[in-house]
Amino acid sequence: MYSRRRLKRGCRPGTVFVWALILAAAVCPTYAQASAAPDLEAARRDYLQGRYAECAAAGEKALAAKEDAEAWGDLLARTLLIQGRYAEALQAATNALAAETRSVRLRWAAREAYLANGWTAEAARMAREIQQLVSNRSWLYRDPTDLIVYGRVALLDGADPKMVLDRLYDRVKKANPGLREVYVATGDLALDKHDFALAAKVFQEGLKQLPEDADLHFGLARAYAPSDQKLMLASLATALEKNSHHVGSLLLFAGHSIDAEDYAAAGKFLDQVESINPSQPEAWAYRAVICHLRNQLDAEVKAREKALKFWPTNPRVDYLIGLKLSQKYRFSVGATHQNQALAFDPAYLPAKIQLAQDLLRLGEEAEGWRRAEEVQKQDAYDVSANNLMALHDVIVSFQTLTNQHFTLRMQPREAGLYGRRALALLERAYVQLGPKYGVQLTEPALVEIFNNEKDFAVRTLGIPDNEGFLGVCFGHVITANSPGARPARRFNWETMLWHEFCHVLTLQLTHNKMPRWLSEGISVYEERQADPSWGEHLNPRYREMLLGKELIPVSQLSAAFLTPKSPVHLQFAYYQSSLVVQFLVERFGHEKLLLILRGLGDGAEINDTLARNTLPMAQLEKEFGTYARQVAERMAPGLDWEKPASGALSLAARPRQRNGDAAAETPRLGEGVWAEWAQHHPTNYWAMNHQADRLLEEKNWSEAKPLLVKLVNLYPNSTGTESAYRKLATVYRALGETNAEKRILMQFAEKDDEAIDAYLRLMELSTEAQEWAAVQKYAGRYLAVDPLVAPPYRFLAQASEAAGQVPDAIGACQALLQLDPPNPAEVHFRLARLLYAKRDPAARLHLLQALEDAPRYREALRLLRQMHQEQTNEVSQPTLSLGVSR
Question: Which of 739, 754, 769 is the last residue of a domain?
């Protein structure tokens, strides 16, 4: 079971210090935060709204006038830290501490300032002093803000997080619901443990009390970041509305822009950060990431040096650089940075868990699992580590299938059903695509297929939330959902594996240095090259998008995968990317595509290598736009695609769950409007579809037939649930025109790779006609979508036996038995007969099992008698003795 709220479960013994915290919290009175002088409140508002210069000036003036040293010293130190005035921040904190020697808040502020200046030993001393003060005189420290400081130090000291959360933070929050620090501290604790659901809940609670607080909006954005980019961006935008100088939000926006490959936008966000703090370490870490991605290696080194200028052993710098590079699939470089972070601080948990993930994605499993287990032992509440170790217990139970080029791991039952088929498909992909891209596998690619979607999500994303992915490739490691992981949402797993293996080749060719749009575009393009029914195809909705205003500039295609407006827009990003690749190949040739990929592998930027081998980006986008419009206009040119005006739109979707549903938006109008529209638009796609649906609903087969025949002829590439082929087959079946039904279904089956209803009907019709090759063909197509149900194996067993293909018939019968068929006796008997023909001793066992289920099974009894007679005859045969001289 995967943990989403580990901080609320389990308990470990606390330290003596923690019990001091509990005692302090227990006697904490229920009161609102003490009111401060008006100028102090005004300065705090300046701080929260990003007016740092005004806040710092007020703090300096107040301390010079010897006003409240604790409150002003704490506020001034935090303000100076945000501005990058690290030495001044340290001086402000220590000067105030000299006046307020018992203050834990000032010691915490001094600790932060010491760290910013790279004085780690002194920072540790501040934490120890806080611990000693609280341990010796816990009754003195009952102020809510002090209690929050106690909790933070307790966590540093190794206190039980659940105890700190339940017995300290929650009590403080209950007594002081308007205290912002308690929501920040609680949310930070949840984020540190990768409990993003709990973090989101905490920050949402805080925003009900303090809706103007930018820190809380920023915390909510961090909680949403791993699972919902749209909500993350919305929260960040709100945070910046409240505080336009909020450094954390600007940095998170910069990171998102890097993910979207919009390095210019990332640079602008970093410029804003540096206008506030020219020495901000994370900003320079992001600069180093951008320089690395642009192959500006000298600039990368300088940016990292600036990030470490004040704190030369700051582990977060290399952790952040490595994290972002791993998110760009540079796992090897990312792991190197995590190792450096751990060299700076061997106990730095974020680097440890990220290193574990990197190693697992690199296929270095032994070390990866060891690192994950180490984190779990060090921090029992780290959700990522717990989830990984739970996943490890699942993976060790998998069955492994191998050949020269692949290691395939699957759940044992599923491995028995379609493991060999999957391995054969992967080998066929390697044979076809390897030479085409000039890549040879130097080590077997690892493919793991999960029958539980949460297992797949943890292996792939680190959390048990799947953003809709079916498969992911990390380089030479592929993770994938099995058909059993999503029983209600069928997909063609063969085309998915083909798609992911194509990534293996292109990522190796480019050393993982390629933009997402090109990587996805090539894989979808190669799906269509392998099988015309595979991959994304032009449909009415995509036609609208290509001809309308939704064509995405090529330079912005990667960003379209991050925050699409809808599942349709995400799926369209895959289709358009493949169309760009198709354009490049048709216009410049496959060799140019290879040169582009090799250029990326050598470190060239995508725009530069495209310009060298094709056209400059601006001209490329212009020519592609013309090409895309031509492709759209060539789709069913005999149809009128104009839509009648409509305020309400309904979704008629083709269920292709790989990347979301691509749908045509069909106007919902009254019958009178449709009748008038059809009269003036006799070949209108929308009117013909609406009329056909109405006739089918009325079971008016004779009138529906010519209309659907015309629609099929005008739009021969129609696929999906709303395809005219499906509707016409329904009409033919209702009219008893079996040959016509079979013909139209065969045409449809060649175009749609998920039409299992059509495949099943074709198996029935082909069996009646004893066309065994056709039965086998459509059984195979069915199994490519769902290999976990009995019907295709039943037809396959019958067809293979009739065709004399005994091994295939045996395999189909064995698969049937794994699926608990309603007639096991018949399957056991058929398998016994097949095995007996090969004189396989297992035949007798299956025959006895058939008779155990059906004791009066006459054919089984006759076969048993035949076996017995042959065995008797063999025993009674005289033995010929040969004399041997010695």
Answer: 754
